[in-house]
Request: fold
Amino acid sequence: MTELDKMLSGEPYDPRDPELVALRRKARLATEEFNRTSTDDYEKRVDLIKRLFGSTGDSVFIEPSFRCDYGRNIHVGENFYANFDCVILDCAEVRIGKNCMLAPQVGLYTATHSLDPVQRNSGTEMARPIVIGDNCWIGGHATINPGVTLGDNVIVASGAVVTKSFGDNVVIGGVPARVIRSAE
Reply:
């Protein structure tokens, strides 16, 4: 099993593996180019994101600056919008449904480390996928942690730290996030 296979299957992997380093470098170069594009060059921005991501809907818009680890593990649906300074660490798959919006400085982090200090200090990492349903809105400075699934129509309050999964039609917020009310 390659380190890439291990990474995508949730097993401990070595991020220093040459294949992974090369894939991250490719993504860094692509995001650097994206972040340098002019506001007036919408088509170029969309093209760069569609080449970087694993899949997108037709309508996708991301404000610079944007950062990710690999890009290829990010899949977004139709009418996706990410505001300024979005970071998606996509060591595992990140799947985002249609009609989703991310406010400024949202972080989606699939990367994680062992709780055991010996394993953590060895340099190995792990990753857990993130799934976000349709019609979701993630507020500014919110953090979505590894392994989280959010259902459809979920609203995440600004500054929330989401450490566990939530079903459909809820507003969540706080540290750690909890249900505040129904979104219906």
In short: The helical segments are 3-9, 18-36, 42-52, 117-121. The chain has one domain: 3-132.
